[in-house]
Amino acid sequence: MTTGQQQESRALAEWRAEIRAWLEANVPEGGLPDPEAGAILEEHRAWERTLFEAGYAALHWPVEYGGKGADLDARIVFQEEYERAGAPLRMNLGGLMLAGPTIMKYGTLEQKEFWLPAILRCDHLWCQGFSEPGAGSDLAGLRTSAVVDGEDLVVNGQKIWTSGGLHADWMFAMVRTGDPQSGHRGITYVMIDMRTPGIDVRPITQINRQTGFCEVFFTDVRVPLANVMGELDGGWQVAMEALAHERGAGRRTYVTFLNDLAQIRRFVTALGQEDDTAVREDLGRLLTAVTVYRHHVGRTVADAMRGHVGPEASYNKLYWSEMNAQIHEVGMRVLAGRAELQDDEKSLPGAEKWQDAYWFSRAPRIFAGTNQIQKNIISERVLGLPKEPRR
Amino acid sequence: MTTGQQQESRALAEWRAEIRAWLEANVPEGGLPDPEAGAILEEHRAWERTLFEAGYAALHWPVEYGGKGADLDARIVFQEEYERAGAPLRMNLGGLMLAGPTIMKYGTLEQKEFWLPAILRCDHLWCQGFSEPGAGSDLAGLRTSAVVDGEDLVVNGQKIWTSGGLHADWMFAMVRTGDPQSGHRGITYVMIDMRTPGIDVRPITQINRQTGFCEVFFTDVRVPLANVMGELDGGWQVAMEALAHERGAGRRTYVTFLNDLAQIRRFVTALGQEDDTAVREDLGRLLTAVTVYRHHVGRTVADAMRGHVGPEASYNKLYWSEMNAQIHEVGMRVLAGRAELQDDEKSLPGAEKWQDAYWFSRAPRIFAGTNQIQKNIISERVLGLPKEPRR
Amino acid sequence: MTYAFTPEQEDLRRTARDLFARTCTAADVRAAWEPGAEQDRSRWRRMADLGFLAANVPTAFDGMGLGDAELTVLLEEAGYAALPEPLLETAAVVVPVLREHGSAEQRARWLPRIAAGEVLATAQLLDAPVAPYGTVADLALLELEDGLHLVPAERLTREQAPSMDGARHTAALRAVPDPATRLPGAALAEARARGAAAAAAVLNGVSRRLLDMAVAYAKEREQFGRPIGSFQAVKHMLAEVALEVETSRPAAWYALSTWAEGRPDAVLASSAAKAAATAAAVTASYHTLQVHGGIGFTWEHDLHLWLKRGKALEGAYGSLRHHHRLLGDAVISSPDLMATFGPTLSTAS
Amino acid sequence: MTYAFTPEQEDLRRTARDLFARTCTAADVRAAWEPGAEQDRSRWRRMADLGFLAANVPTAFDGMGLGDAELTVLLEEAGYAALPEPLLETAAVVVPVLREHGSAEQRARWLPRIAAGEVLATAQLLDAPVAPYGTVADLALLELEDGLHLVPAERLTREQAPSMDGARHTAALRAVPDPATRLPGAALAEARARGAAAAAAVLNGVSRRLLDMAVAYAKEREQFGRPIGSFQAVKHMLAEVALEVETSRPAAWYALSTWAEGRPDAVLASSAAKAAATAAAVTASYHTLQVHGGIGFTWEHDLHLWLKRGKALEGAYGSLRHHHRLLGDAVISSPDLMATFGPTLSTAS
């Protein structure tokens, strides 16, 4: 914050200009529908390969693994421009953000050579196998078992909330190799080929009638011991490193929320509410939140680049998930009686999408650790308040 | 809710008319300042005697003890009219609402004859001795000790938040007669003459620089065993009966809050905010809350008159204390920059009082069991959710 | 108005609860959601058999001539069951408006048939873009440019407009204004306010169901070796829902009683009831979904049937903002708040 | 603007924290509250000795010519200490406005004296009825009917108007508009926005202090045999305060940097910063008082010194409502939100 560091550095500014120009030239006209199946999936793969070929697939990966070795600030700039351009949803974040870094740290040379380029080129799609029906907030309570048998682990059990499970080629998973009461000390982190016999993937229909999450059932699924990341029974630490990424900065930037605010403004205009002071006050409240989030991310990036990454990541997840819910609630309030209608696309463009997004705006308050869990983390690990008694 | 019971019953309507006429004729012009000391105290005593002489001092007391034996609905009507008339704050509720009923249930004939008429005539002012510095939410953690010595209890310790302690003649108190770890099983309920040697009363200056609460210190205070209500070590039950009164309906009616709303409207008008839609929305939100409270009390009364009084009393305390805070916050928002000023009485009548009331509007969220305690009660005793683990 | 239901009214509640527990299960509500589902009228006829639809129809028109308290009970239970029929519109809006403001001919034609369960009626008021059950309604109250009209099916133009609550079978209704269908001017304000009060009662039923589902789940679901309902964060969320819903209910009971009792605050009481019920429903929606966690986001779980009914009713008969403003306008324009909203001396002799 | 303070700036924070820990204890703040307390200028002179008041004064006027980041640090610490001197007004409003918009004569007369700690300056802008430290100020920025004026003490009329925060020594200031004291038109918007941004930074300091006090109390106070800070209800209240305060801070840092960096969003950024800090302060006020319970309602406990500073600053330099509206107006009137508020390409070569 010296006067010498006014505005973005020249390097960052140039980077932003480069990305903006590239996106303007390359983002598919009209965007892509959300990734689902068949042809749509192939369009998304094609887009991911376009990113790869331009060198933008994995900015955060080290150069030796085919990434750009970009700092967090450059990645945020990319993400901002990406959201600004309305570019397609990324379809292999599980591979790029979570599996990839784990493999780099724990994989053998052979494993790295097999998995990493396939992630980069989007040849392999990855999914996450952490949550189970009985293990949500209490992840260490998972029960999917894995028993050593010769050179394999034999896996039995069930995972849930597996995003993209239907199309995934590989899953990074936590399984119980210790006894049922072993808690986080008996968990192993392992990579599972989704085409192994005994795996049954069933899509979950969501509250907005779309699919996206899956349940994955394992019946005597044989996974080579060589696919274990880290030590047998030592998977908890590996997974926690991965989860820290999920909560920290960069998942979404303020630009996404500014786009939402622009959509609300279109509703306000279409419904003739522009002169309503109470509506303006609502919009001002939302703009305040979006502005705060922008600068909060800026601070988080600055801290991270100076080596400080801590439990404060929970602030990030809490803030954006609550803001996101609030934005969608205000949008529904503007729509008022029209909010229940699902065919207002013609008379009120964006209204149907908004409804779908409305219900889904509640989900981030739960996923990646419920907001109650995040508040526990803040109170105990940031503020130093004592833990609750457990029984 | 039959058609035969439209509107208020004729008896209630006549009662309301009687009270309204009497108050119009008798309430001191311009009201009385809040009860404090000396002359002001005597004016309040005079007012209480006026009520007594008219037969209105203790509507809820049975006729045999000098009350009216009035049902809850008649008492609410009285309270509504009392608040509507802006009549003086009642100064001996501790005696009338809490000590009196306890004495009726547990006292000897002699005790009844000594204490009850003195309460009715406001000859004896009573205060409550429940809370201690270390025993707030956790009332059963109280430590003021009472040791049997001959015909007396010898009391040592400290009470706090004793409303009216400076002027009280008697205190009804909970003291520990069991061992320090005996919890609610080692508590005795006893009446203490405030003029007994060894009692030291010190007023607490509040956040708004006024006094009202006291600390009361006991050093070898001898209290006759005959003053114990109920059994030795059996005082918890006696106290809980008294506390239920504190949380239930009737402490304040919606009329008080309607008066507050009228004051906010005066601010709105004086500051030229009448046409502001956002301000109107705020006022509508408050009127909704006041209306809800009115009917909630109506339901509580109807339930109580059919014999149903349960932990739902916590709803009452939670609702009005949160509404009260919200009303005062909205008032401060209307005052905006003027909210910090303490000499706006001339240009903006009511502004200084509002500020004092603002800070005090936070207190009911804490007293008579914090709102967190009330939510525990609702979740466990109304909804049947399991208790928290304790350690 | 005593805020206490009579034993007969409590019996009626149990009867309704029993009927809906058997015939309006979550599976039945789902069936009504199916695209292109025909409106099954069997439950409506059962309701008529039990007198639900005749309750507030005058005896002269084959009704039971009961008061609004019976209606109140039925509306709460309809919300609790997410009933996929227009009880709110038919019994709580159309019947009273028709009874008080309809022509002799209109009353004679429709009231007996409604009481007999032969008519699904609906209403499209204010700036509401659609009517619930507009696709199937036999009769509709429509607010047109020149006032309120009671329009029979043959004069209605329907344009289907799917609701996020698929069981509501919404459609935008149109009709050509015609003096023959038009109701007297006073009918409009009454229809709007009655709709708001009745929607409040239904919403309160919806919220109570959400609460009951979340409480049951919180007792059963374990994490960290104990039921999640033993965590203070969960307990307090559910206590807040209970507080808002239970305090909101008597305001709706009162509002529904105001017309029969000829109270001057009928319109304001209805707005307050709807505003309170809507705010409670929002709290209920957030906290109960949060308590359910991921499972609540699945189509398979029943929670969303009530979440969506609640969301649809939030906007019906005036939004929170609409009613807050109406009440705020009354606060500003009332010469003396205490005289307008405070306790009054009864003028009854 | 990098959202990261340099080691030198962190040193300055420590210096300020140390000075205030020694010379601005709760007892010192209480002393300033005493009715009729003379303004003790010794602390102000100590601040000048340490360069706090010269920080953003140009070197040509005996200042240090530093940027706004140093100011940011000092403002947060002033809030944390509930400093009873007008650092906000003097250093964050009057100095920059004088520096950028004052006449040569005004600058020469005042800036060196301010840097030396000889001047307590204040400001009374917008529809604010009073100026903090108006009873003692040597210099005031006043918004009069015809614009912004820089008025020396001898031309001021003061009418004492006690604040609920007794250490603020508020007075309503008046002056006769005079071309000699009037500043150019652009000065007004800058003064208002700078005041809002600076008040946000001070408020964030106040809220952090409230949080620290409540966290300490929650660790120490026991009920039911355990620290109350181990109850989830208490933990979550304090986590919410921490969330709001810590996310609000960078918005104020940014807003304070906008002028030096010549950013077009200076006014909007300042409004957002003040709105966020105010909302956070309201949450902090409610939750920290609730955590303290009864003891927080006593005059004897120090909590209220910060509660009242926070409440006074909520209304200063524009209320929450004022800033929300200003931002909402910008949302409505901006032809393209992304162009106005989104990421921009740097035009720097």
Report the CATH superfamily of the largest domain in chain A: Butyryl-CoA Dehydrogenase, subunit A, domain 3
Looking across the biggest beta sheet of chain C, what order are the strands in? 1-2-3
Major β-sheet of chain C, in short? 3 strands, mixed
Ends apart, CA distance between termini of chain A: 48 Å
Largest interface: which pair? A-D, 68 and 66 residues
CATH architecture of the domain at 187-344 in chain C: Up-down Bundle
Q: How large is the share of residues in beta strands of chain C?
A: 5-15%
Number of DSSP helical runs of chain C:
12
What is the arithmetic mean of pLDDT of chain C?
A: 95
- H/E series of chain A: HHHHHEEEEEEEEHHHHHH
- Give the CATH architecture of the largest domain in chain A: Up-down Bundle
Please provide a written account of the structure.
The complex is a heterotetramer, with 2 copies of chain A (391 residues) and 2 copies of chain C (349 residues). With 391 residues, chain A is α+β, with helices and mostly antiparallel strands. Chain A has 3 domains: 89 residues, Acyl-CoA dehydrogenase/oxidase, N-terminal domain (Butyryl-Coa Dehydrogenase, subunit A, domain 1); 108 residues, Butyryl-CoA Dehydrogenase, subunit A, domain 2; 135 residues, Butyryl-CoA Dehydrogenase, subunit A, domain 3 (Up-down Bundle), CATH 1.20.140.10. Helices cover 45% and strands 15% of the residues of chain A. Chain A is built from 11 helices and 8 strands. Chain A has a 4-stranded mixed β-sheet with strand order 1-4-5-8. In chain A, strands 2-3-7-6 form a 4-stranded antiparallel β-sheet, with no helix packed on it. In chain A, helix 7 runs parallel beside helix 9, helix 8 runs antiparallel to helix 9 and helix 9 packs antiparallel against helix 11. Chain A is globular, with a radius of gyration of 22 Å. With 349 residues, chain C is mainly alpha-helical. Chain C has a domain of 158 residues: Butyryl-CoA Dehydrogenase, subunit A, domain 3, CATH 1.20.140. Helix content of chain C is 56%, strand content 8%. In chain C, the strands form 3 sheets. Chain C has a 3-stranded mixed β-sheet, covered by helices on one side. In chain C, strands 4-5 form a two-stranded antiparallel ribbon. In chain C, strands 6-7 form a two-stranded antiparallel sheet. In chain C, strand 2 and strand 3 form a beta hairpin. In chain C, helix 4 packs antiparallel against helix 8. Chain C is globular, with a radius of gyration of 20 Å. The two termini of chain C are 18 Å apart. Classes of the chains: A alpha+beta (391), C mainly alpha (349). At the A-D interface, helix 1, helix 3, helix 7, helix 8 and helix 9 of A face helix 7, strand 7, helix 8, helix 9 and helix 11 of D.
